[in-house]
## 1
Amino acid sequence: MGSKDIFDDEDIKRIQSEYDSLISNLLRCNNPGDRELIEKAFRIANEAHWNMRRKSGEPYIIHPICVARIVNQEIGLGAKSIATALLHDVVEDTGYSLDDIEKEFGPKIASLIDGLTKISGTYNKGSSSSMQAENFRRMLLTISDDLRVILIKIADRLHNMRTLDSMPENKKMKVAGETIFLYAPLANRIGLYAIKSELEDLSFKYRQPVIYEEILSKLKHGEKKYYSLINKFSLPIINKLKEAGLVFDISGRPKSIFSIWKKMQAKNVPFEEVYDVLAVRIVFEPVPGIPEKTTCWNIYSIITDSYLPKPDRLRDWISRPKPNGYEALHLTVMGPDGHWVEVQIRSRRMDEIAERGYAAHYKYKGDNTPETELDKWIKQIRMMLENPLEDPIEFLDEFKMNLFSSEIMVFTPKGALVSLPKGASALDFAYEIHTEIGNKAIGAKINYKLNPISAILMSGDQVEIITSDIAKPEKEWLSFVRTAKAKEAIKNSLKTESTDRIQKGMEMLEAKLAELGVSPNTEILKKIMLSYDVLNKDELYSGIELGTVNLDNLKKIIRKSPSKNVIKYWELKLLGSRKEKKDEEEEKEGKTDPSSPFLLRENVENAEQSYEIARCCNPIPGDEVLGYRSPEGSIIIHKPKCPVAIRIMSNEGNRIIAVRWAIHKLVSFLARISMTGVDRIGMVNDITNIISAELKVNMTNINISVREGIFEGTIDLYVHHTQDLNNLILKISNVRGIDTIKRVEDFAEEV
């Protein structure tokens, strides 16, 4: 150990000074034993990290002390959280174990530290998992037990970002990327606005240092002007607020560098053209007997008496707080010398919640206080985490999508507000109300107008869900829901249905085999599976119940002598050949055997197919098709005569693969039919009755026009196979008045 690794007197004085700074300004630590707990945690952490240094060269223990200070003074947590912050790296970086911690401090602090401890050991780099995503996943899962883990982790990340300069460039980019991806949005959702803004700015500083320095330089250059404007703006307001008898603080500042940059990006303008760079905050003491909301609007009135407001920039988060509990009234007014100024109006309570989030929220929350938006959000997190996805990357994506996306507010028919992520559909709304309503949904009235359940909702919409007892979740639903609750409910329903289908299919096969006097042994099942091109017994049983596997020729299949190819196949199966293992590996990697056609299977259990249907020609099962393997690795299915396919064949012939359809009965494909005929009353009704009522086919678009007694039109609909479409065309051709009806072979789907 070199001399630089051994603490000298200066190091020891520095450690003591930092610790004294922590304990001399403790908040919420007035219970008996609080200071003793913190002192004990510091002593053990100091011993564990003795002679350890950070990359910056300072004693390592300085970092846990600073994290503890953030936890207490900037977030507002108490003694146990401070102790946990002091000890948070002990298990990971020293010889102490979780058992040691539990013996000294009890199970609660041990569990908090466990949530904070990074995962050690190796992982499979070839898998879709990553250590980074797995660490995030483990941390997020602790929310269901104790939200303090997240709060301490955010404090840890904040101090790391404040001291990031000593790290190498690649480490800076990694940490800064993680921060803007997860920690800043998470801090925002928990209500830590000040910390969120600092994390964003620090991340931006290291990710885009040139742009950061440019904006910082321009802010510094105009600093005197900005504060002069703020003072000039504030003076008449201060006088009027004093005349009204209000006790208040007023402060002003330029907005954060990251928020200015976002405005520049959103509006595609330079720094000089961002009009609302300045922000003024008014924090008032509540007036006894007068609601805080009333005082906020009184202050609003005082401000607008002096300055002209910008109507489209009024933000009322008092009547409806943000999901993270944030309450305030924001307005933008035209200030002196033609500068726009944003004004934030808050009570003292609102301000503390805005700055300290979760901890302050519960400081003001009584036992009888109604459930707040923050309570609902935490409940939503815990609901989502009850059945977490196994893949950490998929889990993280789902978490971000559902919990970090912008919110919309929609109304029930009775006027109750429902919060949903931006981009949510009417079906998301249905599941948010109740799982059974979602499962039975067939349509929605949005602002009294009938819409499909896939319709995207906007803030302020009033939504009424239309249900039917015969409706049930479809796989296609997974493609247009956004909330974790809706996806989980649909998947559970499909899984239950699949299990029932497999059981019924197995019983049907056993009954049929019993009629033939045959027992369902392994050899018989393998012969049947081979005949029907199915991968496993579950797919076979599902197919039987669905009707995709027809048992009418079962007798012939069983008694059929195995061909040489079949014998060879069983030899390979029994011997467990290397070729089979290779094929399995290739299948996992998404590769295809060029010597045999790629089978376009119907994926019964999952939302995604193993291929994509080209929207330029919209082939359906039964059509002659070819496959194109894109540079991204996906297989796109075209008709051979499609102009796009012809171009691909001439330019990228090496990417063309042979494909063939398996039997399809579940997944629907878009098709279009055209009709002409002599118009009469009730004709359209007769046509749609055949499609919807008789054949149970879903229509997506009807376009019919009549001129001088002759009608022509097109209908877009979803079918399983060309046989279904041909049957439909035959039925409609018998409708009185129909002259011609045919399939439109090539059409582009409108997107």
## 2
Amino acid sequence: MDNNQLNLIEMIDYIEPSGLDYQEWCAVGMALQHEGYPVSVWENWSRRDPDRYHAGECERKWRTFRGCASPVTGGTIVQMAKEHGWAPEKGRELAWDDTIQKDPAIIVDSHYIENLEIHEPKEWCPEKELITYIETLFGTDDIVGYVTRSWSKPDNDKKYPDKGCWDRTARQLIQSLSKCKGDIGSVLGDYDPEVGAWIRFNPLDGKGCKNENVTDFRYALVESDSMDLERQNAIIRELELPVACLVHSGNKSLHAIVRVDAADYAEYRKRVDYLYNVCQKNGLKTDNQNRNPSRLSRMPGVIRNGQKQFLIATNIGKTSWDEWHEWIEKINDDLPEPENMADVWECLPRLAAPLIDGVLRQGHKMLVAGPSKAGKSFALIELSIAISEGRKWMGWQCAQGRVLYVNLELDEASCFHRFRDVYTSLGWRPDSLKNIDVWNLRGKSVPMDKLAPKLIRRAAKKNYIAVIIDPIYKVITGDENSADQMARFCNQFDLVCTELGCAVIYCHHHSKGGQGGKKSMDRASGSGVFARDPDALLDMIELELSDDVLKQEENKAVCDVCRKYLDTHFKRQEDLSQDSLCSSYQMLNYCENKLSKEQWDCLKGLVEAEKVKVKSYTAWRIEGTLREFPKFDPVNLWFRYPTHEVDEVGILSDIQLEELSSKDYAIQKRKKQAEDNRIKKQNEFEIEYANLEFEGEEVSANVLAEKLETTSKELLSWFGDGKRQKRNLKDKFEKYIGEDGKSYIRRKDK
């Protein structure tokens, strides 16, 4: 372990193991091992999740970690810690894979916030504490869940709450408590004074106490047990959380019952994730085990190991979730203010200089879209070279300057060789190689939201006028068919443009099926955001070559070979007419008659090789959708490996694109969506299964169905023989009946 690096023990203190899935938990262990820490560090940290911790498991897993070409490093822990509120001290040298990124505004200044004292009630009236709590959180007809009994495991003395009761409404409980004269045990049942009692903060249906029994997703629990109580109190109030009830737990934490007012479970999860993120960013280290809407919280009005569980306050902070959320968003708003046109009319900002004449300005974004075998990577290498040399690309003049080519697909050797092959094919001298930097990331790429800050840090002082990313499918963050997720993904390109002041150029593949009947904007795979976001879209579509066109190309190629051979090996006389020079038949006859046998045999070999090469030619049409320049006429190209060549003759201009009927297009689109949904569902299943499997118990079909937001009947049908079966899952998993008569899922290889 390098003592000059950051202390990872400090880092993991910000990360709650209970909030991680199995893969993330393993990643923490791998990073600690890679950086030279002992297994005991991982072991001690993992103990913070008592529900999933198993003695000896860390050590067993530790021994299975092996080195690889792209190891999990300390940077993984640094990133996790940042996401949970840690921030490096100013003036510290960056370490591991530290990135430069802009966090949302922090409301709480940890250096200046003052602890806020907590006062116990002057008069202890248990029933009044609990009545106020119930009246604040529940309607009169809401069923309230509570727990007064506890149990302990055979191997330790720690006591846990049982499932409790859910048999009375808020009205019934309040009426009974009002008459109990301080003896709440007579109403709820006696509790163990060593451990106290608990209550659920969301109403139930009277049939159970799980998430599916919650009838209204009103509140979420914010709890932190890793900082001073007075500091917790101060941060909760500074954040103006919409707290309905703030309860002292009788130990080392406060329980803030926060209004989230979600319409359903899906919205509840989103709002709780947002709430916890804001808390973490502002120094309130929340316990991530408390996310469930059916979670228990500490009941006010009882004694716990000699300490009171009591109400500190009710109805503090903002009055509702919407009010609080709007307030947070306003504070975090770092957008520029509107500008009045009258103020800038006489002195308009200067337009950015063109990077590609008539197509793209410097500092803007461009997408090159096309199907497989279009030579998109070669086209982007050609563009890199054209910019470095200040030459033409696809017929358009490029500005000269430095360019970064981000290679995500090719191995390092292949990438460098391609650059030399393209230079050779173009016939250009490599006079400005110093203008080209290549960042080889095959096998090392990360999602674009993680790559962008790393790229910015490395490119900050290089004065690039263009960054070319090839291809982007390697770094896509989220579902490419989701408009909102792809909007966030594309924003990363804007971040690079803004921070570096350079253009960002990237390529993406077409969707499956024929493209001729679509508009250029609709051909790129995934959400329409891809095509509508960049300032310039160059779309490549293949042209179907007829035999006549191929014969003309073969004739031209043979004539060129003959002419070059004669110029090198034979001083031809002026007996070849212009017509003869354009006829392969006449050129071959002339060469056969004029050259020696050895020369003729050599030429025939060159001609045959050229004919084979012609057969590999493909033809392409580039259509453009431009934001800053007028639309250009389609550009027709030959792809003669490894470079593209503009069709100056015009032989390709008459070729019509293959049309695809709207019906066929709709069918293809539905098939693609179905396949995307299948893959997404499989991934969700395997992730949730692995998380449950990690807990070391049988995977219940009911529990797994709940995690997947479906019914157990629907889930079990996937492993049956009916129409709903999912072959991809049946190959790996199977259903079975446990000893308790309930349905479970297991891996087939076990």
## 3
Amino acid sequence: MHVTVFITLRSFYPKLVFLFLSCLISSVAEETNSTSLSELELAKRDAKDFKNLATLIKPSVVVIESVDRNGYEGGRGTGFVVREDGVIATNFHVIGEHRDFSVRLTDGRTFRPHSILAIDRDRDLALIKIEAKELPVLQLGNSQDLIPGQAVLSIGNPLGYEHSVSRGVIAAIRELEFGDGRPMVQVAIPIEPGSSGSPALDLNGNVIAILSIKSGGAMGFGVPVNELKRLLGELAPIPIKNWLTIGALDELEWKAMMNGSWKQRAGIISAVGLGNGFGGRMLCLNQTKFPKLPYEIEVEVKLENESGAAGLVFHSDGKDRHYGFYPTNGSLRLTRFEGPNVFSWTILQTIPSEAYRLNEWNRLRVRLEENGRMICSVNDEVVIDLVDRGLESGQIGLCKFREPTARFRFFRVSKRFPKSKVTPAFTNQVRKLVRPLLHRDSLEPSEIDELVNMGNPTPQALRDHAMDLEKKAKEIKRLAGEVRERLVIQELAKSLRIEERGSVDLLRSALLIARLDNENFDLDSYLEKADLLASKIEKSFTKSSTQEEKLLILVKQLFGEMGFHGSTLDYHHRSNSYMNEVIDDREGLPITLSILLIELANRLDLPVSGLGLPGHFMAIYKEDPPGEKSGKRKSRELLIDSFGGKIVSREEASRITGVTLDEEDFEPVSNRDIITRMLRNLIQSAEREEDSVARLRYVDAIIAIDPNDRYTRAMRAMIHYGEGRFTDALIDIDFLIEKNPDAPELDPLKVLRGRLIEQGASAP
């Protein structure tokens, strides 16, 4: 429905009327006495009029500051007031997809948005609401009345220079080659980063376009204002709490209590600031089912500093009653809370422990038994074992006290956890294997006396020796990383080798890719999250729902209600290729979002597969016709563009990819192809960031999956050569030559092989 919106400019509009009546009178006088004003005087008057107009418009223009994927300062853009009760118009890309941002007025007041009133991704428009009143409003014009050559004025924040004024003309009204078929306003006005969302106004002070695209030089494009007027009539408010998905807690898994600030990203939950409970207490209770007593809960915690306190909470009533086990000031403490204040707080035991590692990650575990027994341990060492029947049932989760930030990872619950595999015997075996890198770590008293007798140079010599040991410690840490990476690659390759037997878990394989770069998350917990998402979606099905109807519900809930979306601002950010971060942030690439869709569909018994299109990735639903006698009846097919969160036709798929697609393009791809494509995306990201170490890691993974991948093996040979690992380069070159000795594309590698031999390289 199209609604025409009339907006008044309160104090601004009377001034404009006076201003332009004055201009009209002057114009009439000029016609009766054309020689009374010189061209210079006319130019001065014109400049003065623009200055006055800019002064009047300025209070209605705002600065919009957003944050990036990691919560740091992101970009800066422009917006303008379209309703006096705090409605702001801007470009969609300025606020970002599901990002946090703020709005700053010309008087210095800064507001967090109250809600997102409406968005149009295709036209790059957004309407947001802040809690402000009696704001100066800009009047909206009519973009159908625009004439090429007419003068325009714009105010924005290009390159961070706030409220910069630009003047120019409308160059044309034209359709862009990469657009959606609707016209854009071409303006001869310089547009720079920060200009996005700026109003372009005619000489009557009416907004005629919203600046959006830089075209080069003093040229750009704006969205016609009539598109904004249409959007004002199609409001669909989203509370900001529901909009901000990046870093938000998964409500299916966690519930924050006592007003604490909890964030969840990349497998790590962070607790920031103070809660409103006693001692700054704040809780985060797990919402998933836990077993009947006895059972065990576990988490790893790291404090910003040891003055803080954070750990496990259990037997909680969801309010003030609960137990807590946590480190505090370097000791381990078990407490019972039975109310909101100090008088209902009982310290059951506080124990120092050498097993607790200051300023590092520490694994806390509590075993709960039916008789009120609580066995509390840190890093596999029992520190507290007592019986208390004050509270015998309730929820489990996390807690934090005092100001310092705390981080949590690997929260788990089980009937009984297995014993750690890192036994003293295992540790000794590892140390034996790396002993060549180590020196003795203690001296006899007589040897220390000998050092003293050596005189003043000795301390410096010892410090030099310490630096050597630090280098060796660094090498051991690097070796630990290399071993971990190889173990992950082995597991990934193994999972894909069994694809033919139909037992491969695509999501697990995708999560293993994320583990190549980040071991600080519990892989199995993300598989459980997928189960939870599928279970929630399944509740929307009815007994009469067809397969196709179920798919439509899945797409609507995943990309609509749950907020999973394509990353338009940080497309090349590596986080978009890490499935754990895609699930946490609800933002990703076409391929990662499609993997999630496929896995949820499979859990719901829907026939959805991956579709590897040129330059894009989609999912495809194919439902075979019922019965064996269907003859030539075609399967029912639906294409899902996960990046756009919608069902598309084959024609739309061709438009999205920019190429004419053939029938073979719509054939589903294997899980092996999907995982390999993810790794190639990461290779490109690493090349873009000039991260040669990461690039080699992804290349190794592809070759482990497919040892006969000639292209990737040749790439690895060149990487090894460039890094000076000549023997490794020679091994890969010899492999390629042996497999296909007469291939002409190998001639450059054969020349390189000769150089490697000359430099002394030899294959084992």
## 4
Amino acid sequence: MKYLIKKNIRDFWQLKSEFISILLLSFLGIFLFTGLTYAWVGMNENFNSWANESNLADVWVGVSNIDEQQVDDLLDIEGINEVQTEEIYNASLNDQKQLRIVVPDKKTISIPLTIEGDEFSLTNEGIWIDQYFAEENNYNIGDSIKIENNGITINLKVKGIILSPDYISYTGPNNEMVPDHEMYGYAYTNTESLTTNEWVGSKEILLKVDGNVKHIEQYQNDIEHSLGTSFASFTSRDNYTYVSGFTQKIFTLEKLSFIFSVVIFLLVLLTVSTTMHRIVKNQQTLIGTLKAIGIRNRAIFLHYSLYGLGVCTIGGIIGFILGPYTITPFILNLQKDLYMMNKWSGEKSLYPIIILIILIVIGTISSLLSAKKTINVLPSEIMRPQLTENAKRSFLEMFSGIWNKLSFEWKWVFRDVSRNKKKTILAIVGIIGSMILLIISTNMPYTFQKNNNDLYGEQYSYTFKSTFKSDASLEDKQEVLSDIGQAQFIQEGSVTLRTASKSELSILEIVGDGVYVKLSDLTGKTILLDDEGVVISKHLAEKMNIGINDTIQIKLLGSDKYISMPITNIANIMSPQGIFISEKTWETLTDIPYNPTAILIGNSLSKDDMDNYESIDNTVSLSEQLEEANIVLDTVSGIIILIGVIAVIISCTVLYNLGTLNFTERYREYATMKVLGFRQNEIRAIIIRDNLFNFIIGWIIGLPIGVAFLNVFVSMINTDSTAYIPHVTITRIMLATAIILVCSISVSIIICKKIRGIDMIESLKSVE
């Protein structure tokens, strides 16, 4: 047995390029999967741990004009365990910075975490500011802060620096794409500190519910019935904007890890199998000799199993060790600027261990299966060179007109395909897998960029968007419009949408007259908001299972009644996912006055000019919004690009192994051709055409599959507020094609160099 182990070591060295390729693929597969998995598992566990420690709310209920008895009555609903109310105020600082002020009546649900200073108290006067806002604005414990709402200013002393699980994804009052911690933050205080009752705000009820009693969404009807006209909105943890942004990113990373890793893993297994098959094929005479001198089959099986076992184990373990120290921190660092978490760390998971074990087991089994057919044959049969099968008629030979026009090289290729279907299928599968990885990795960043450009360029084409203060009068808003001239009002707000079977909290956008908002339908045609009904976004329509000519019921936040409206069209847009209606239609179908929340303007005024209006809360440029959107998507695009680089390496390795396998199986045939007088260029042409055929077929099949995978992947990372539209370009398809073609040609060139080394006498001397 020790001699076989020495042979293992000698073979590892002699066939180092083949084994390095297996080691590299095993390493990359486990490296990527482990790094991605440790990242999303760490984010998930850190979130769940904080959620449990803080008793994070399960449901947020928006209410208006509610009394204490109505709040207490919610505890009578089966499954509701805890109730807490919060007053919410948007307060301004002197330098136009804004704080979301939270005033809870209890300290039992969504308890803020104290980072520095005193614990948050319901009786201790002062204010507790979020850590990120405090750091950006140099607020320290003991500092005095002046905040204003509805023209009433109060001064409060900073008692603590906090983080709240309710605001992990807080991006300001207008829900910007990227958080601006210098301009927007949140803070907690209490009724003892809020000495005025003239502030204007809103109220939320936080609930803890028993998920075993009923599904969380099923509580909505009971709550709405209990609160009556005071009910405004129902939002579960999965849909609460300030939390769901983070949880949905976890979901995205989880899907990334599994989708890409599965494809890569299959290619790894394909390569291990084909490589071991080639090694056994080359050593069949040696196997016969080992059997002839008395070495048992079991010992030979163990010997060859060590190839797959050893290489996959070494590569996999290296990837398993390095992944958490490279990929994981890289991914986590991309997320830190977007989310306000109390802890950032990767966490161990059983998934990579399971995948590693599966890789090792299958690598070992692949080695055994490759050797089994040969080992279980008599030594005399093994040592006899295998005769080439008689060439079978190819499909094309049925069409003599076409067949007779083909060159000898192409006739060889098609007969080879008919005779060696397994080899051809393996090669084509390798091309298909590579196409899937490269189509996704080349087109996904473009999809993100194209969606952002369409949103902030086509759908919205203004230069500036100015948001009105909540207490601004309609007269003040009309004055701004008349001063500017060419501008467009929009009213944005939350609404509850209801059909016969579903209810959703969504966005309503009432569009005034103007040219700065343009929607496109499913065919790409511009939608004209007519006077008959509403336009619904495609993703929301699919979620609520409704379409054109259906009717949907809409209830505004703070309203006590639903309004039925027909759906006249479906908008194929990324964001926002909601309902669009013209100002005229709104005034026709409802008795609720149009009250714009923002104004869209062109180049007539500057941002500073808009800030001079007392009624304007803040102004943001379209270019700033686009930049922020790109920053968000960079966190995913960076991962996709990394995977793309790995995909290129894997593609080259897979194609090399498949190419060398084909050369090994055709070795004696090429030797025969040399004996018969074929020049090296002629043999080289056959090899190149053989690989070219595999490439063409793999490309034809892999292209639509890769596009389908892209569509599936895009749909999996969509959220309730954002639905990306897949975009595939000819340029990027050609880039993916060129990468695989270059890999295939490079492999062909490397293999063709081996023609010179063919030993004609040694290859043919034992032919029967």
